[in-house]
Write a structure and sequence with these properties.
With about 400 residues, the chain is mainly alpha-helical. The chain has 15 helices and 2 strands. The chain has a two-stranded antiparallel ribbon with strand order 1-2. A hairpin with a 5-residue loop joins β1 and β2. The two termini are about 15 Å apart.
């Protein structure tokens, strides 16, 4: 199972690597396509729309053909679409490519999480947060590589094309290491299913969490620059501090989950995040603001894996549909939060508008109870989960993971 765990982590890392690499080359792509800021915003909305459309479809496809195929196809298509975006000659081509990138990114987001949750059940202990840490590290590495490529005058087409080719080859090689589907997971189910109330509560918690993450991504630098009057070099460190702290907390998230349990960890994460952002807004000094955004990242970093794990244990829903539903609702928060803060900033100022994110995080604290698994998937009962056994298949794939009664994606 160790090889499977490495493979799943690589797919998470690759998804983050693509996102960070693309984000770092946006200015260069905008310059080569000669589009305005309004046009760029419209094109970027295409990626958000693609992810929003793809996430529920990916959940359904995981049921029909297995999450292994969806994970690989999503990463390959995301890489190809990023390359297409780097080669776009105008707004229509860029928007179409970014729609494809969003769809691939959203598909990996769902399918790789389903893989991680299934592998976690085979392990008999929590490991999902480590995969999310790999995604965060991938985003940081991608941003760093993008900055280096820009400094060396490497064109976006050459940079992102090489990255897409590399991830395609790695994805195809590692595909056989991912968990295979079983017959029960590809059975036909109803297309329209009313989500249970527990899943909607989890979705609300994900909405609040990702709204706050979106606020940090889009508004940390403008807040430091406009409200705190920090220089540009310092303003850019706000999101860096947030991201580094998030990656670190996710690295420790599985140990914290085992020690404190999902509800207490989610609640404590929300308290730390809300306290950090509140301090950044109230005190208004550069060091406190940077420390506040770091605290915000460390608190929020542990929450999403908890919510996805709980979604996968929702009674009456498969793991893939549960994760897809919570991902989709959460993504709505990521999309809605930054524009809402922007509109509010026009009326009450950015410092007051960021209080929207504080309210969202406080709401997460009250919704933390939803992070408790609904079945016997809590850490205390992990010893009762079926553990995978290794067999040699007739196709010669020695060491291929098999399983008994565990439902794999």
């Amino acid at each position: 199972m160790r090889a499977t765990r490495v493979a799943v982590a690589v797919f998470f890392f690759g998804d983050g690597l693509l996102l960070g690499s693309w984000a770092s080359r946006i200015p260069a792509v905008q310059a080569q396509t000669h589009i305005t800021n309004a046009g760029l915003g419209l094109a970027l909305f295409g990626s958000s729309l693609g992810a929003l459309v793809a996430m529920p479809l990916a959940g359904r496809l995981c049921e029909r053909i297995g999450s292994r195929r969806v994970t690989v196809a999503g990463l390959v298509s995301a890489g190809a679409s990023v390359f297409g975006a780097s080669s776009a000659g105008g707004l229509p081509a860029l928007g179409a490519a970014l729609f494809g990138f969003g769809a691939g990114f959203g598909s990996v987001n769902v399918a790789a999480n389903v893989q991680g949750i299934a592998l976690e059940r085979l392990y008999g202990r929590t490991i999902l947060s480590s995969f999310h840490a790999a995604f965060s590290v991938g985003g940081l590495v991608g941003a760093g590589l993008g900055a280096l490529a820009a400094r060396l005058s490497v064109t976006p087409r050459a940079h992102l094309g090489a990255l897409a080719l590399l991830l395609t080859m790695v994805g195809l090689v590692l595909a056989r290491r991912l968990l295979p589907p079983v017959a029960a997971d590809t059975a036909r189910t109803r297309i329209l299913v009313r989500p249970p109330r527990a899943l909607l509560v989890l979705g609300a918690a994900a909405f609040c969490t990702l709204l706050a993450e979106g606020a940090a991504a889009d508004w940390s630098a403008p807040y430091l620059s406009q409200a705190v009057h920090a220089p540009a070099a310092v303003a850019g460190l706000g999101y860096a501090a947030f991201s580094l702290a998030m990656a670190t907390s996710r690295t420790l998230g599985d140990r914290l989950h085992s020690r404190f349990g999902p509800v207490m960890l989610a609640r404590a994460g929300g308290v730390v995040a809300a306290s950090g952002l509140t301090a950044a807004l109230v005190v208004g000094s550069e060091p406190i603001a940077l420390a506040g955004f770091a605290a915000m990242g460390s608190g929020l970093g542990v929450v999403v894996p908890l919510l996805f794990r709980a979604a996968a244990s929702t009674p009456g829903m498969s793991a893939s549909l549960g994760v897809a539903a919570v991902s989709t609702i959460g993504w709505l928060g990521f999309l809605a939060g930054p524009p809402a803060i922007g509109f509010a900033a026009g009326a009450i100022g950015l410092r007051g508008a960021l209080a929207i994110a504080v309210v969202a995080i406080v709401s997460l604290v009250f919704l933390a109870r939803s992070a408790a698994p609904r079945t016997g998937d809590a850490p205390a009962s992990m010893s009762s989960w079926p553990v995978g056994r290794r067999n040699v298949g007739h196709d010669g794939t020695s060491g291929q993971l098999r399983h008994g009664s565990a439902r794999l994606p």
